[in-house]
From TrEMBL:
It holds the Pfam family Toprim_4. A zinc finger (CHC2-type) spans 39-63. Contains an N-terminal zinc-binding domain, a central core domain that contains the primase activity, and a C-terminal DnaB-binding domain. It catalyses: ssDNA + n NTP = ssDNA/pppN(pN)n-1 hybrid + (n-1) diphosphate. The gene is dnaG. Monomer. Interacts with DnaB. It is an enzyme of class 2 (transferase). Its cofactor is Zn(2+). This is DNA primase. Its EC number is 2.7.7.101. Keywords: DNA replication, DNA-binding, DNA-directed RNA polymerase, Magnesium, Metal-binding, Nucleotidyltransferase, Primosome, Transcription, Transferase, Zinc, Zinc-finger. GO terms for biological process: DNA replication, synthesis of primer. NCBIfam families: dnaG.
């Protein structure tokens, strides 16, 4: 996939004025050197959203959002990084360059696919006007004319004609783009081509730039499949797109809420009744990409499901996909309608107010729904049932990587349900880093505090341990002196704080990119994958403009894998280094760069045990490294 060059992005940001960009969406007022407005990302009565023309940066003191003109477009319209670059570039008449690498065949097809899909869209809309059966179907379903126009509803004719689209595509029989766009099907055995959609009412699917990327077709009477979607194409992926999102985006922002329904007609009728923040997944479970996109637009996402078995199954899939994406401060809810209703029928029978009251009163927050479903699988009156609850809850808690506060609160609630203390529950739900037996008396840092436990494990009676803990956190073989017994008071030493030098480098550079001035470019020798690859790319971009602020540097790394990790690390860095002076920062970055480079060198020349021995002697081992060291010794 082609990558947008960094120098073009910088040139683009130099050409646009963030004040002009923001003012297209939010009225700004001059306030000293800056401009002020009510924040478009959260509801507020007094302005706390400030735009700096000199720094070309925005910041909201209410909700904390900040960034460049590019970030503003991305967040406000929930666009991907490349989409936002293209939109911003078009606004100032710039052409997004294509790198020297040749385009893939898939990329070459994209412009043609958009063209043929637009022609099909116009054709289906025109056909609806002359199709009494389709018009009657929509009237029977309660669809008004203005709603049909809003969603571009249409009709694909059929009957004895298997090639209706031939009327608008003169090259129908040999146009390969028609097949690539999913509009026709080629039968290899008969060498015959025919339209994919026939005798169906049509629901066009648009991307966030309101371009047609696919269709959904529904039979008007009996027939299978009831709904038929476009196949996966270079411009359409069910796992990334949401039906109705272009029409719903403004309402989602205004209400700070998104409602995810299951069907096209659910969305159409909800919008018609004033619930214009509704969207739908496209015949598939709600994916992490869907959830990520909606959480950029609103703080509350409600999943609305039918109360049947299929709805319950879809809700659980949505919950599982939501866990890695949910963040503290965001709220996900699950609404189950009465068994005889779906959102379409419910809103038509009871109206908007009743439907929204149902959301407010009956929708279960993610935490309650998770606990309800997990506890229903066990018998909490039995020890075995409570033990199983701990076992089945752990994988779900581990998924809450972006919501530490919610994870803590869920852990406390689960501990109460299992009749455990919070500390006991936490110890049981921390997955061991290696596959070794774990005893109640043992933890990662006190695994050999008790010789009887070790002896019993070995089944050999009283034996001397072949290693002793070092005060710096490592271990040494063959230490002399008495071994500790469980009944003796062992002196407790407070472990020295250990720092991952690679993480330390990233924290320092995000805190103040200018400290890289004069430092060797040692990151060029680091591995270019995983976390080290992320740090390497951030450092290389920071060196291009060391006068950047840390937040600006983060914004320029939107396209990097692992980008989501940067903002939390940036926030953490301010707490760590706020009181450091410039000299202390320079010493810290120099030492951390050297330590990180040495670690990579060690890894390529030493066995893992030798590497840990060397680290133990130089800086001591972290808890995880100590546990790994113990495991390696046990394998001898």
């Amino acid at each position: 996939m082609a990558r947008i060059p960094d120098d073009f992005i910088q040139d683009l940001l130099n050409r646009v004025d963030i004040v002009d960009v923001v003012e297209r969406y939010v009225p700004l007022k001059k306030a000293g050197q800056n401009y002020m407005a009510c924040c478009p990302f959260h509801k507020e009565k007094s302005p706390s959203f400030t735009v700096s023309q000199t720094k070309q940066f925005y910041h909201c003191f209410g909700c904390g959002v900040h960034g460049s003109a590019l970030t503003f477009i991305m967040e406000l319209q929930a666009l991907s990084f490349p989409e936002a670059v293209r939109q911003l570039a078009e606004s100032v008449g710039m052409q997004v360059p294509v790198e020297d690498r040749p385009q893939s065949e898939e990329q070459k097809k994209v412009p043609g696919i958009y063209d043929v899909l637009k022609v099909a869209f116009d054709f289906y809309r025109a056909q609806l006007k002359t199709a009494p059966a389709a018009i009657e179907y929509f009237k029977r379903r309660g669809v008004e004319g203005k709603t049909a126009a809003k969603f571009g509803l249409g009709y694909a004719p059929g009957g004895d004609d298997w090639q209706p689209l031939k009327a608008v595509y003169p090259d129908y029989d040999w146009n390969v783009t028609l097949a690539e766009a999913g509009l026709v099907i080629d039968k290899e055995e008969s060498k015959r081509r025919y339209d994919r959609f026939r005798e169906r009412v049509m629901f066009p699917i648009m991307n966030q730039r309101s371009q047609i990327i696919g269709f959904g077709g529904r039979v008007m009477g009996q027939g299978e499949p009831k709904y038929l979607n476009s196949p996966e194409t270079p411009v359409f992926s069910k796992g990334r797109e949401l039906y109705g999102l272009p029409q719903a985006r403004t309402a989602i922002r205004d209400h700070n809420r998104a409602l995810v329904a299951e069907g096209y007609m659910d969305v159409v009728m909800l919008h018609q009744h004033g619930i214009e923040y509704a969207v739908a997944s496209l015949g598939t479970a709600c994916t992490p990409e869907h959830i990520r996109k909606l959480l950029k637009l609103a703080d509350e996402v409600v999943f609305g499901f039918d109360g049947d078995k299929a709805g319950i199954k879809a809700a659980w899939r949505a919950l599982e996909n939501s866990l890695p994406e949910v963040k503290d401060g965001k709220e996900l809810k699950f609404l189950f309608l009465p068994a005889e209703h779906d959102p379409d029928s419910y809103v038509q029978e009871f109206g908007r107010a009743a439907f929204e009251s149902l959301i407010d009163e009956a929708a279960l927050p993610l935490s309650q729904y998770l606990l309800k479903e997990l506890s229903a699988q066990v018998d909490l009156t039995m020890e075995e049932g409570r033990a199983r609850l701990v076992h089945i809850a752990r994988p779900h808690l581990d998924q809450l990587i972006q919501a530490p506060i919610l994870k803590l609160m869920l852990s406390k609630r689960l501990a109460e349900m299992c009749q455990l203390s919070t500390a006991e529950f936490a110890s049981l739900t921390v997955a061991p880093s290696v596959d070794v037996p774990v005893f109640p008396e043992m933890s990662a840092d006190t695994a050999f505090d008790s010789a009887p436990v070790y002896d019993a494990w070995q089944g050999q009676g009283q034996v001397k341990r072949p290693w002793q803990p070092r005060s710096n956190g490592g271990f040494k073989r063959g230490a002399k002196g008495k071994s500790w017994r469980a009944e003796e008071d062992r002196p407790r030493l407070k472990p020295a704080a250990q720092h991952d030098p690679l993480l330390r480098v990233l924290q320092l550079v995000l805190f103040r990119p200018s400290i890289l001035q004069g430092q060797d470019e040692c990151e060029l020798a680091w591995p270019n994958e995983g976390f080290s690859g992320l740090v390497r790319c951030v450092l290389m971009r920071a060196r291009l403009d060391v006068e950047l602020l840390g937040a600006e540097l983060v914004e320029r790394c939107q396209d990097l894998p692992g980008f989501a990790r940067l903002a939390p690390i940036l926030n953490e860095s301010h707490h760590l280094f706020d009181k450091f002076d410039q000299d202390e920062l320079l010493i810290e970055i120099s030492n951390s760069l050297m330590a990180a480079t040495q670690n990579f060198s060690l890894g390529s020349t030493l066995s893992r045990k030798e590497e840990l021995d060397a680290l133990s002697a130089s800086r001591g081992l972290t808890d995880e490294e100590s546990q790994e060291y113990l495991t390696l010794l046990l394998r001898r």
